[in-house]
Design a protein that fits this description.
Elements (H helix, E strand, L loop, with lengths): L1 E6 L8 H15 L3 E8 L1 H6 L5 E9 L2 E7 L5 H8 L3
Parallel strand pairs: 1-2, 2-3
Antiparallel strand pairs: 3-4
């Protein structure tokens, strides 16, 4: 099965949400599933990302919590979803 997570927080942040996604992803992949993550990130993260199943989108900081960001345009994810037949 192909599974997608959509989240406003992911690596390099390390909080409860990220830990939960990482743990779930690991267990699902051990079962043979493909897990994709769509998340907000900086341009540096977008350019340096080595994981083909993680998709960072350009984003802006969330002022009350500077380490969290909002994706500016996450809509290109629909083409990734369609091309990879993610359920």
């Amino acid at each position: 099965m192909r599974i997608a997570y959509y989240t406003e927080t992911y690596l390099p942040n390390m909080d409860g949400v990220v830990r939960s996604i990482l743990h779930s992803r690991e267990q699902l992949e051990c079962s043979g599933d493909e897990v994709y993550v769509f998340t907000s990130g900086t341009r540096q993260l977008i350019q340096s990302n080595q994981d083909p199943r993680v998709h960072y989108y350009d984003s802006i900081p969330f002022k009350p919590y500077p380490s969290y960001r909002f994706a500016i345009n996450p809509y290109p994810s629909s083409s990734v979803i369609d091309s990879r037949k993610i359920e």
